[in-house]
Amino acid sequence: MSTTSLNRSGTDTDVDDATGTVRIERLTKRYGDQVAVDDLSLQIQAGEFLSLLGPSGCGKTTTLRMIAGFEQPDAGDILISGQSVLGRPPYKRNVNTVFQAYALFPHMTVAENVAYGLQQKRVPKTEIRERVSSSLDMVQMRSFADRRPTQLSGGQQQRVALARALVNRPAVLLLDEPLGALDRQLREEMQLELKLIQSQLGITFVFVTHDQGEALSMSDRVAVMRAGRIEQLADSDTIYSAPVSAYVAAFVGQQNFFDGTVTADGRAVQAAHAVLRPAERIGSVAPGVQARAAVRPEFVDIVTEAPASDTNVAEGRVIGVSHLGETMQFLVQFGREMSIISRRPTPDALRAAVGDTVWCTWRPESVRVFPVDESAAHGGFVEPPTTRSIRTA
Ligand code: ATP
What we know:
Elements: E1 4-6, E2 12-14, E3 22-31, E4 34-44, E5 49-53, H1 60-68, E6 75-80, E7 83-84, E8 95-98, H2 110-120, H3 125-138, H4 154-166, E9 172-176, H5 184-201, E10 204-209, H6 212-218, E11 221-226, E12 229-234, H7 236-241, H8 246-251, E13 255-262, E14 269-271, E15 275-276, E16 290-295, E17 301-303, E18 313-324, E19 327-334, E20 338-345, E21 357-361, E22 368-371, E23 380-382
Parallel strand pairs: 5-10, 5-11, 8-9, 9-10
Antiparallel strand pairs: 1-2, 3-4, 3-6, 6-7, 11-12, 13-14, 13-16, 13-23, 14-15, 16-22, 17-21, 18-19, 18-21, 19-20
This protein binds adenosine-5'-triphosphate.
């Protein structure tokens, strides 16, 4: 099946044939008994920024390495710009890969590192000079052309690695956790720059990361992977606001979970410490069946007087307060083990202190209900691995 997309010049074209499209068809890769990639299909449009997001071991890198040609699939096909690339070596696929480890040649200057691939291809010297200069301009490293990699910071080395890939003018750039070794501030700066470079060049980017913030902020679409398959493929807004499963909800952004049973009228989830009533009738789980309701911390408000209604309310005790700059986080405990997080803008944040009894409330529109998924998170607050953890008293 093919879909219509915009190519670099902005005209309608068939996604199968446009330069820079990637079509993955029923791809499977096994290592012994381990299925690393499991019957995965995916179409990436020309000029798209697509991230493969998921926890360690879900098959992101293996998928990328098969597109690059470093690994061969056991089944399935990969088409780049409409052509099957199975059996073709990496250098004949019109793709380049940027890895987390920059792997620059230490004995060569920055310019020589960037020029190396073109020299191997016997590109004329004047053309090499021009292409190296413009690639270094793109990553703002021209003034460092004569330095050696050891004289550069990690961020600068990664820019050179990017220039070295871009100089080949690939149709598709594959990036495997390229910002993983950088500190947080530099990482955020590089995210913005990478996105800018990608939109200016119109090259297809396939970006592997386990950092949900990074994937959401940069991508046109995000493929959330789980056990070698894609659990959800959508734009960032949809992934965040309408996750298809408790797994995606827990992995992307922070989440409070309440395990309970759907009420007989199919309109609420009766949990141990609260009745959660979404805006609409629960369609995903039948009445009387176990379900997992979820509310994000930014939608949980805290009040110090008992509200009139007893739905979408939970009474508890504040056991932690932390300042996160623009927001404040409150950790509120119910019963023995259950606790949820509320995150409020700092100016509006109520001055509840550790030990206070409070009521957590949330609007029906912020409640999402999922079938219980034994392999995903348990009830209670779930924090993805890449967000900062709350300090408790
Ligand atoms: P990470 O974020 O940790 O890199 P990932 O999502 O990229 O994880 P992969 O590296 O693709 O995951 O690995 C998927 C599965 O395949 C894992 O269970 C891993 O142990 C296994 N695997 C990957 N490469 C090999 C290999 N060369 N030999 C054996 N098993 C492998």
